[in-house]
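In the design runs reported in the main text, the only information available to the sequence generator was the tokenized backbone. The following block is the verbatim input for one such run; it is reproduced so that readers can re-run the procedure and compare outputs position by position.
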């Protein structure tokens, strides 16, 4: 993703009603933060935010958390949020590597990975959000039977991810190599990257994985 330097990015984020400056303060307390016991769905690498803001607007009975490490990208997400915010959305500017600092075990009911950077070079494999390191971090915040939904245009990255999910003990419950020509497209909310690749005719891959502790 190309990034422009936006000098007042942090100020702009802090003015958004849904922006959480110190998310570590809510570890284990997210239901109190949202003032309900609704499920919590987390998107990692939200980018410009079409996906998570659309879901938050359409599903008030679910709490959504958008996690993105670049403030300059997050500014585009918060522009999609109305001035008084959404009651069921929290936005955080952090790195997914630190997920355990922000969530207790079982606090996240669903995790979305949408068009994560594929990092094609082998020496960068550790940065992939479906690398063993990240798949093990996710286990520490997901509840029993909670799912991860992963979409990508990149077939090589998808094949790698399928193997890693299996290697790390996840069960794949659904999988398609062509989302738009499968029954998994029902209710699909596209991301900015997805719209671009779909318009170019690139098939979109999607899987749903569940981690069950025995
Ligand atoms: C290729 S973009 C996709 C954005 C969006 N999900 C979409 O589909 O349009 C990947 C995004 O993930 C973010 N990202 C990558 N690694 C991350 C990490 N470790 N923690 C948080 N965000 C990350 C990047 O900053 C970038 O905005």
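Verbatim output:
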């Amino acid at each position: 993703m190309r990034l422009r330097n936006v000098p007042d990015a942090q100020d702009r984020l802090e003015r958004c009603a849904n922006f959480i400056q110190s998310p570590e303060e809510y570890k284990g307390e997210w239901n109190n933060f949202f003032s309900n016991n609704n499920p919590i769905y987390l998107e990692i690498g939200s980018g410009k935010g079409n996906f998570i803001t659309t879901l938050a607007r359409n599903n008030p009975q679910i709490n959504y958390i958008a996690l993105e490490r670049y403030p300059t990208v997050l500014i585009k997400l918060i522009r999609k949020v109305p001035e008084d915010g959404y009651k069921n959305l929290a936005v955080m500017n952090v790195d997914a590597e630190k997920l355990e600092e922000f969530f207790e075990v079982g606090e996240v009911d669903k995790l979305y990975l949408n068009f994560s950077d594929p990092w094609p070079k082998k020496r960068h494999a550790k940065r992939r959000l479906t690398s063993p390191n990240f798949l093990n971090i996710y286990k520490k915040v997901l509840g029993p039977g909670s799912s991860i939904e992963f979409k990508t245009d990149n077939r090589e990255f998808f094949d790698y991810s399928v193997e890693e999910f299996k290697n790390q003990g996840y069960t794949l419950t659904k999988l398609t190599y062509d989302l738009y020509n499968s029954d998994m497209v029902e209710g699909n909310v596209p991301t900015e990257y997805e719209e671009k690749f779909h318009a170019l005719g690139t098939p979109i891959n999607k899987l749903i994985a569940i981690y069950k502790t025995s």
